UniProtKB/TrEMBL annotation:
Annotated source species: Roseibium aggregatum
Residues annotated as domain Haemin-degrading HemS/ChuX: 37-164, 218-349
Annotated InterPro entries: Heme_Transport_Util_sf, HemS/ChuX_dom
Protein name: Hemin-degrading factor
GO biological process, one term: iron ion transport
UniProt-listed CDD domains: HemS-like_C (cd16831), HemS-like_N (cd16830)
Amino acid sequence: MRTDQTTAEARPSAFEVRQAREENPKMRERDLALSLGISEAELVGSFVGFGARRIAPRFDDLFPGLKEVGEVMALTRNESAVHEKIGPFEKFVPGKRAALMLGEKIDLRMFPSNWVHGFAVEKPDGKDVRRSLQFFDAHGDAVQKIHARPATDLEAWKRLVDRLVLEDQTPGRLPEVSVAESFSRKRPIEGVEDALRSRWEAMTDPHQFHGMLKDLDIDRVSAFELAGESWAWPLDAGAVPALLRIAASEGIPIMCFVANRGCIQIHSGEIATVMDKGPWINVMDPTFHLHLRTDHIHEVWAVRKPADVGHVTSIEAYNSAGEQIIQFFGVRGEGNAERSDWRGLAENLPRLDRAVHLGAAE
C-alpha cells in the first residue's frame, strides 16, 4: 500500500498520466501509478472525460443496482494477493460501520468509511469495451473493482452508473489523497500474556478474536507468539503453496480471505487448478481466481480459536511488517464441528521450531 506521496510540484498532470498510459499500454494500472509516484485513484482520475466518470460510492444505490446487472467479476486485493470472484451480487446487508454482501459466489465484508473515491471506467479493447466500477480509499488505494462480463446486463449497468454519476466531471482534476501510515505492530505490554491466554480460552466464537486484540492492544502476530503451542504455532513459509496443492488434489473445501482497508473478500468451496508463475502461485478455476506473491510471505501461523463446537483452525500468512496477507479456514456450517480433512491438512503442514522462530523474530 502507498506510503509516500509525490509533491504537488512533481506530481504529473492528468495529461502526462494519460500520455504515460499510452506509452505503456500493457503495464498494470497499479504498477504504472507506482512508476509515476501517484496513487492508483489519481491515475484513474486522470481519465475523467476520457473514458472515466466520477461516481459516488453510495452503498444503498450501488449494491441493489449491482444485483440487477447479473454476472460480474469482483476483485479485492492488497499488496501481495489478488482475489477474484465471478458471479452475481445477491443479498446486501447494510451497516454504517460494516456492511455485508452474501451470496454463493460473491461474499464480502465492507467498511463504508473507506470507500471514498469512485469511478465508472470504459476502456476500448479491440472491437469491444471493457467496463468496470472502481473504488478507492482516502489514500488512493483500491478497495474493490467490479468488472462487467459477457453475461452482464449492460442496460442495467448503464442505469446503475447513471444513478451514481456525480455532477462534477471536470477533466484534469485529480482526486485528493492522503499519505497512508505504514503498518506497525502493537507490541504487547508486560504482563498481558496471562490475560491473553485467559481471554483466548474463554472465547465461544472466532469473531471475538478481533475484539480481544483491541481490548488488549496487541497485534495478531504478537498474540500468536504469546498464546502458547496449544493455540498457535509457526509454519514453514512454503506451507501456503502446500495447503493450496493439497486442498486441490484431495478436494478439501476451503475458505480463502483477502482483505484491504475497505473490503474482505471470501471464497468458500473446493479449488482445482493451482499453478506457479514466477513468484506468484495462482488458483485459476471457473469462478475463482487467486494470485498470491509467495516471495512476500515472511511468516505463516496455524491458529486455533474456540468456536460454538470445539475449535476452528486457520492458516494465516504475514509480510515482514507483520501485516496479514491472506487467511484460510476449512468450510464449516454454523453448529457443525470443523471438518476432519481440513484439520488434518492444517495440523500436518510443515512446522517451524517455535523457539528458533521466536529467536529469529527478536
